[in-house]
Write a structure and sequence with these properties.
Length: 150
């Protein structure tokens, strides 16, 4: 009996290790008309569509790209959630995007052209970085490292 319990305990440990080492989930968002595009509580790689996406990375260090094409022109809302996320909405789209980094030191890029005033709120974090269009995009003071681009 003792040996059986021991084997069961080992199996639980192996499963827990496998779960912790799971790779990031990588996926494309579906039709935005079907509702928001949500990641998992682990690291995700999420790609938006040519339409107007609402993307939530949730927990984990996520990589999120709101645009698929340089001629997008649709307005995205992206929320990184917890974790040091990388958020891109910068494919020369000239659209008006709303980005919220959430907790963690996020990297946010909304440098996409002279029209379309993007709004960025980096949320908690001591070293949030944002690259943006100088004099066009609205960047909150909680983005500690601001890089205005010409
Ligand atoms: Ca996630
Ligand atoms: Ca996240
Ligand atoms: Ca911009
Ligand atoms: Ca942040």
């Amino acid at each position: 009996m003792r040996r059986v319990l021991c084997a069961a305990g080992l199996a639980v440990v192996v499963l827990a290790l496998a779960g912790g080492m799971a790779l990031a989930r990588s996926f494309d968002c579906g039709n935005p008309a079907n509702g928001p595009c949500r990641g998992t509580n682990r690291p995700d790689e999420i790609r938006g569509t040519n339409g107007s996406d609402a993307i939530y990375g949730r927990d984990g260090v996520d990589i999120i790209d709101g645009d698929m094409a340089a001629t997008d022109g649709a307005n995205d809302t992206i929320v990184g959630g917890d974790g040091a996320d990388e958020i891109y909405d910068a494919l020369l789209a000239d659209d008006t995007d709303t980005i919220r980094g959430g907790p963690g030191n996020d990297y946010i890029d909304v440098h996409d052209g002279p029209t379309g005033a993007d709004t960025v709120d980096c949320g908690p974090g001591a070293k949030d970085r944002v690259y943006f269009d100088r004099g066009v995009d609205q960047i909150a003071a909680n983005c500690e490292r601001q890089f205005p681009m010409p």
